[in-house]
Amino acid sequence: MYQIFHPLPKHIPYASYSRITKLNTVHQCDLIEISYDDVKLDLLDDSPIFYYVLLVIDCATRYKDFTFLTLKSSAEVAEAFKSIYDNSGKPLNWPWKLQCDKGTEFMGYVTLLMNKHGVKIWRIIACFRYISLAFVDHYAKIFEFKVFKNQYAVEFLLLTDERCRECEWFARKIVDNMNDSPTWLIRMSPNDVIKLDQIYFKPLVKYNCPIGINEPQLPKGTTVRFLLAKGKWENDPFERRRITNPIWSPSLHKIWRIVVGKNSLMPILYYLDESGPQRPFVREQLMHIKEEPMLPPRWVLGDNQMCIRRSL
């Protein structure tokens, strides 16, 4: 009980994107919903109504692009990717790897399209998107805030039954402004960075402890407990979700594979055996179990039950 409810570590290093130094190497994408155009009030108006926006960001240059969709289907999303990547006037081209969530809109036609152009798709589990999809999530948050702010500012001046249909014009101006603004890590705007052959930027976090090759390494075959994802009890056959869920895994696992990156800013990644989750861990996310835990004998539990019954 002490082990599985041990407090979280204060500092956990994560994999860095500093190894990506070229344009169109890794892209992140997401689909957001435009909630204020879900009902067409004017039946005589034949203009298209936009429902969703496909957001795409390049992880090396932080260059951002978007396109509108009318339906949330894999066929529509595939056509949206074509409009972004097949446009000669835009710098984004078919990447080497595409990161997205496990939504059905990124399957089917999208998978066939990416396989046709040799693009590897990395689908992120929802509970880990705050780590692997941090770029596009931050981009989507700023995009929604600025678009809706301008949208509501115009609708305040209109009548009650009228809606503003200038979302595309607002969005294009906002994205162009974001691409012209310098980023904090690169110190250059994405429009200037895309002209470079290679991009170098400083890491987001400076660690005071050894990391990478210099950090202490757990040997292969070590017995460990892994840190559970936020709000989820992994490897639980009953799928229990309670407020009293443990912090560390109740089950014990062995380290099966160790990956040491060439980049000095990349922490050592550990993979567990087949019974554990198939995702990498860093050293701070593993609890080294030196001795096999021993449970108290059954007569102790029996005496406790007797005391509880007598007290009741």
Could you characterize the architecture of this molecule?
The strands form 2 sheets. A 5-stranded mixed beta sheet has the order 3-2-1-4-5, with helices on both faces. Strands 8-7-6-9 form a 4-stranded antiparallel beta sheet, with no helix packed on it. With 312 residues, the chain is of the alpha+beta class. The longest helix is centred in the middle third of the chain and has 22 residues, at 134-155. α4 packs across α5 (167-180). The chain is globular and about 75 Å long. Helices cover 25% and strands 16% of the residues. The chain has 7 helices and 9 strands; from the N terminus they run βββαβαβααααββββα.
Layout of helices and strands, plus pairs?
Elements: E1 26-33, E2 52-58, E3 64-69, H1 74-85, E4 97-101, H2 109-116, E5 120-124, H3 129-132, H4 134-155, H5 167-180, H6 190-193, E6 223-226, E7 253-259, E8 269-272, E9 286-288, H7 298-311
Parallel strand pairs: 1-4, 4-5
Antiparallel strand pairs: 1-2, 2-3, 6-7, 6-9, 7-8
